[in-house]
């Protein structure tokens, strides 16, 4: 049996119950888990270890318990927006240089511990979004900074994927195109967190990438 690990921040977490490893949340992870276990019954043990609010430094801190110790054969990773957002919310973000350094360190250490692992990197994304129904800030408050910084983070992730010969899933441009066509709030509720349609898009693109390397 192969192990597939979803890793990332709140977009991956998606309100999962952290007591039960069989709970994959309410987002793209559960959608893809359903598809994998349906198409390949009995072939996969699946974990979702995304944690809401995580920056790359937070993920690196838990690399041993939430990645290496699980010994995944496959891992998808979507992270980067909090490294930007937390700077604007509470001056606790991660600058681009450090983001690339820690991200690269994480990949280095995972590959050293698990040389046969296949890793899929997902491109971080953002849209201009207003305050969601539950409160908090939308990305429109600091939109010009978000728009500039997400391009930098997306290029970093793409560069790391190329450096380590990893699968890369582009998402940023597709979300932007669909947002212009149908409205940003169809895909992301606050410019960051996906709607069901947004999660479905991520799940489909991730599964496409996975099937190419399975």
CATH H-level superfamily:
SGNH hydrolase
Overall structural class, as computed from helix and strand content, comes to alpha/beta
CATH architecture: 3-Layer(aba) Sandwich
Average residue-wise pLDDT? 96
Order of helices and strands: EHHEHHEHHEHEHH
Strand content: 5-15%
Number of helices: 9
What profile does the largest beta sheet have? 5 strands, parallel
Query: What is the name of the CATH class?
Result: Alpha Beta
Coarse morphology:
globular
Count of all domains:
1
Q: Name the assembly state.
A: single chain
Number of strands: 5
Q: What is the radius of gyration?
A: 16 Å
Helix content: 40-55%
The third-level CATH topology is Rossmann fold
**End-to-end CA span:** 13 Å
Give unreliable regions as ranges.
Answer: none
List keywords for this structure.
5-stranded parallel sheet, alpha/beta, Rossmann fold, 214 residues, 9 helices, single chain, 49% helix
Describe the structure.
With 214 residues, the protein is α/β, with parallel strands linked by helices. It has one domain: Rossmann fold (3-Layer(aba) Sandwich). It has nine helices and five strands. It has helices at residues 10-13, 28-39, 56-61, 63-66, 81-90, 96-113, 143-163, 172-182, 196-213, and strands at residues 2-8, 44-48, 74-78, 118-122, 167-169. It has a five-stranded parallel beta sheet, sandwiched between helices. α7 links the parallel β4 and β5. It is globular.
């Amino acid at each position: 049996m192969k192990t597939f690990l979803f890793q990332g921040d709140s977009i991956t977490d998606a309100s999962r119950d952290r007591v039960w490893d069989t709970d994959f949340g309410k987002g793209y992870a559960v959608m893809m888990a359903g598809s994998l276990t349906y198409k390949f019954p009995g072939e996969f043990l699946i974990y979702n270890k995304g944690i809401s609010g995580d920056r790359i430094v937070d993920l690196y801190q838990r690399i041993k318990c939430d990645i290496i110790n699980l010994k995944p054969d496959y891992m998808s990773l979507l992270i980067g927006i909090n490294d930007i957002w937390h700077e604007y919310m509470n001056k606790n973000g991660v600058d681009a240089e450090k983001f690339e350094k820690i991200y690269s360190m994480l990949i280095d250490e995972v590959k050293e511990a698990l040389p046969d692992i296949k890793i899929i990197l997902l491109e971080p994304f953002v849209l201009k979004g207003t305050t969601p129904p539950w409160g908090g800030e939308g990305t429109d408050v600091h939109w010009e900074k978000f728009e500039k910084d997400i391009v930098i983070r997306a290029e970093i992730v793409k560069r790391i994927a190329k450096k380590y010969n990893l699968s890369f899933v582009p998402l940023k441009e597709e979300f932007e195109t669909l947002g212009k066509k149908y409205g940003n709030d169809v895909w992301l509720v606050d410019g960051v967190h996906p709607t069901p349609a947004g999660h479905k898009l991520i799940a489909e693109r991730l599964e496409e990438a996975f099937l190419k390397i399975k």
